[in-house]
Amino acid sequence: MKEIAGRVFRHMDRVRLLASDGTVREGRGAVCRHKSASGDALGALGHELGRLQEPLYVFTGSLPQLVPGDLLEQGGERYTVLWGRRVMLGDTLVCTRAVLERRDEDAGL
């Protein structure tokens, strides 16, 4: 498998992955608030699961596979991985994408 994600995201902010197996990895990418097709931030409207109380976030960048329960850190914020996958173009890894939930340390999440 070839990988171009490292080159594509080399100028993005650093992220740190605390994997559920205890390993720590670093990469680069962007964490953005998830928006619907109409541009509304999810959390401000209905969702398939019902009305969201908190917005979700999306990571796009250069990291190994992310699995639910992993922790992602960037810019002083911590996020729990809810879903992740690698985006491939043939046998080339283009990027890793993940749906995240921002951790609220005060709420014990």
Descriptive overview:
With 109 residues, the protein is mainly beta. The chain is 4% helix and 51% strand. It has 1 helix and 9 strands. It has one helix spanning 5-8, and strands at residues 2-3, 14-18, 24-33, 46-47, 50-51, 56-62, 71-74, 77-89, 92-102. The strands form 2 sheets. It has a 6-stranded antiparallel β-barrel with strand order 2-3-6-9-8-7. Strand 7 (71-74) and strand 8 (77-89) form a beta hairpin. The longest helix is centred in the first third of the chain and has 4 residues, at 5-8. The chain is globular and about 40 Å long. 21% of the residues are buried. The model is unreliable at 41-45 (pLDDT under 50).
What layout of secondary structure does this protein have?
Blueprint: E1 2-3, H1 5-8, E2 14-18, E3 24-33, E4 46-47, E5 50-51, E6 56-62, E7 71-74, E8 77-89, E9 92-102
Parallel strand pairs: 1-9
Antiparallel strand pairs: 2-3, 2-7, 3-6, 4-5, 6-9, 7-8, 8-9
Give a quick precis of the structure.
The chain has 109 residues and is mainly β.
